[in-house]
Write a structure and sequence with these properties.
alpha/beta, D-Maltodextrin-Binding Protein, domain 2, globular, single chain, 5-stranded mixed beta sheet, 2 domains
């Protein structure tokens, strides 16, 4: 027994020594490992592909630029290439050629694409007028003496004919009680020309989108009427080629999820994105300090009533001879 006791103490000491030499995982390291694991899980977002979007320099596009700046497209696994275009015809040419997958336009543009076969689908409102934030403005020259809608009876109003601008103009004046015979428009397709003619008084009245309308007002034009009380006419939409929706709906869903987040960010703190207004040319420099970013709509699509009214107007104008299906042209299923 006297020999066994030292042996027991030796074994015990060896065991304690081995235990002491075994590396322990510090609490901080364990926490860091867990955090890294969580980051890796979050980073493992499925890549759903690439979308090319034709983009005009208009305020409606701000959520796309905000989503890009905030990394929201990447967060949702979609690569988005924003392609600047200078005009609606250029935008539509890219879409028709398959060189762009989507854009911001209006229901009238979608109808024209779809008059023979369904080529485009509206998937979300982009910008919709609300009280205090008009989208399109019927302005009178400061030299005309016109101050209200009744003063526009028989007066030629400069518009881009056959577009949403003419549609909104006629609907707003009809809502004010003017008859078709009392509403006169004249084609002045280029917005800079409209602004210049309004300023000189050569054009008694004209229609401009904001923020250019705000600039014209700051230079002396009179705001006769805007669409803030009639949001059913002057809204814009996100639309995508039907081929894109059919072949890669997950990319479009990811795009719209990112837009939804961007809209919420802008609406909660619009001043945060003032630099984008300047960098992307969305607001004229003289207005940067005073322009108020409009609230952007949360996820929804145009109603069938809105669609049918625009379709009726196009048929009355002879621009459309067939009924274009609302159900086939407006797709709410991709919204988050």
């Amino acid at each position: 027994m006297k020999i066994a006791r030292p042996m027991f103490l030796l074994v015990l000491a060896s065991s304690l020594l081995l235990a002491a030499c075994t590396p322990a995982v510090p609490v901080e390291e364990a926490a860091e490992t867990e955090a890294v694991s969580e980051v890796q899980t979050e980073a493992a977002v499925e890549d759903v592909g690439t979308l090319k979007i034709a983009v005009l320099p208009i305020i409606d596009t701000l959520p796309m630029y905000a989503a890009e700046a905030e990394g929201l497209f990447a967060k949702h696994g979609v690569t988005v290439e924003l392609i600047p275009v200078a005009s609606a015809p250029e935008r539509d040419q890219l879409l028709a050629a398959g060189q762009a997958d989507g854009t911001i336009n209006e229901t009238l543009a979608v109808m024209l694409f779809n008059k023979d076969a369904i080529q485009m689908q509206a998937v979300r409102y982009a910008l919709r007028p609300v009280e205090g934030y008009g989208h399109f403005f019927i302005l009178a020259s400061g030299k005309s003496g016109i101050t209200d809608a009744q003063g526009l009876k028989g007066v030629e109003i400069g518009v881009s004919q056959g577009t949403v601008i003419e549609y909104v103009t006629e609907r707003l004046l009809q809502a004010e009680g003017l008859s078709a015979d009392e509403i006169k428009t004249i084609a002045v397709p280029k917005i800079p020309d409209r602004m210049a003619l309004l300023g000189s008084g050569e054009l008694a009245a004209g229609v401009l989108p904001d923020p250019l309308a705000s600039l014209a007002i700051s230079q002396g034009a009179v705001n006769v009427l805007d669409d803030s009380l009639h949001p059913e006419y002057g809204f814009s939409i996100y639309s995508f080629r039907k081929d894109t929706v059919d072949t890669n709906p997950e990319a479009v869903k990811a795009f719209l999820a990112a837009i939804e987040e961007a809209v919420n960010l802008i609406n909660s703190d619009p001043t945060k994105y003032t630099s984008l207004l300047s960098d992307k040319g969305l607001v004229p420099p003289p207005l940067l300090e005073t322009f108020k970013v409009p609230p952007f709509p949360t996820g929804d699509v145009p109603t069938e009533e809105e669609w049918n009214d625009a379709l009726s107007w196009m048929k009355d104008k002879g621009m459309m001879t067939v009924d274009v299906s609302y159900a086939d042209s407006v797709n709410p299923a991709l919204l988050p």
